[in-house]
Design goal:
The protein is of the alpha+beta class. It is built from 5 helices and 11 strands, in the order H-H-H-E-E-E-H-E-E-E-E-E-H-E-E-E. The protein has helices at about 5-35, 40-75, 85, 130-145, 235-245, and strands at about 100-105, 110-115, 115-125, 160-165, 180-185, 190-195, 215, 220-225, 255, 260-265, 280-285. Strands 1, 2, 3, 4, 5, 6, 7, 8, 9, 10 and 11 form an 11-stranded mixed β-sheet that branches. The radius of gyration is 34 Å and the shape is elongated. The model is unreliable at about 1-35 and about 170-180 (pLDDT under 50).
Length: about 290
């Protein structure tokens, strides 16, 4: 049994009075908060909205990334295979220059290549496969391709990468496929080119970087040999010599006067060597012309 003195009861009543008053105040102010939103509730609502938006954007980015990755994981087949080596090669599912095969032999393939446009930049390196020079030129052209242009427009990548030498006087000659590097021999320089997506035609945005130029490449016929692995200058020189020798025996075509070798590389750096597709080509003309 609890014993309580009158004094303690009185004190208890005094202490309880303000508590009752506060309870009444909260009750009377509750309808106002139901009609509005407290600062804490507003913050929570904002966080939820931002999280939802971020999730939606992340899903979109993941979808786009998956789509781009699939172009490399599930390559397309647009070339005929003359050997087991060629059968193992693969190329990304990206736009490439259009061509028609005129004929095939055991040693090379003849193609008629349709016209296209390229963006070019001079390489600081002294050969076509200088890693530092190629990287700098690639970055310069990539900036143009991905928005550093007058329209601030991002354009799609194409394939292959082509390394090309030109005449010793530095005069521009016709080129063949999506990304090209050509050498200006009197200056000891090369020029790298990206082939532009065909949907633009001649209506391409102009580059903001003055070191990037846009050129049109006319229709041409080339003799092509495919090979796998990584490319170096010695390999190109040996294969070019063999191709020139083989073309001397062609009854219909001959190497065009002044033609120099082009090297096309279709795959990104992480591709296994034996599945990479590389090509060397020389421009040719019909013998009766």
């Amino acid at each position: 049994m609890l014993l309580v003195s009158p004094c303690s009861i009185s004190a208890s009543r005094i202490r309880l009075s303000p508590i009752k008053s506060m309870a009444v105040d909260r009750s009377s102010s509750a309808p106002q908060r139901r009609n509005g939103m407290s600062p804490i509730e507003a913050r929570i609502s904002l966080v939820v909205a931002l999280a939802s938006q971020t999730s939606s954007q992340s899903q979109k980015l993941l979808t786009e990334l998956a789509g781009e990755t699939a172009k490399y994981v599930f390559p397309k087949t647009i070339f005929g295979s003359r050997t087991l080596e060629e059968a193992l090669m693969s190329v990304p599912d990206l736009e490439t220059v259009k061509f028609k095969v005129l004929k095939r032999s055991d040693q090379y393939e003849m193609r008629e290549v349709e016209p296209y446009f390229v963006a070019e930049a001079t390489m600081p390196g002294k050969n076509g496969f200088d890693l530092n020079g190629a990287s700098q030129s690639f970055n310069t052209l990539a900036e143009y391709l991905f928005g550093k242009n007058t329209k601030k427009e991002s354009m799609a990548m194409t394939t292959p990468v082509i390394t090309r030498r030109t005449q010793s006087d530095g005069e521009r000659v016709e080129m063949t496929t999506p990304m090209i590097t050509k050498r200006v021999e009197d200056q000891g320089k090369w020029r790298m080119s990206f082939v532009m997506p065909s949907k633009y035609g001649s209506d391409l945005p102009l580059p903001k970087d003055s070191s990037v130029t846009i050129n049109e490449v006319p229709r041409k016929i080339v003799a092509v040999v495919a090979f796998s692995g990584f490319v170096n200058d010695e390999e190109v020189k040996a294969r070019e010599s063999r191709l020139r020798t083989a073309l001397k025996g062609d009854a219909e075509f001959q190497v065009k006067d002044g033609a120099l070798v082009e090297v096309a590389q279709y795959n990104p750096p992480f591709t296994l060597p034996f599945t990479r597709r590389n090509e060397i080509s020389l421009e040719v003309e019909r013998k009766h012309e």
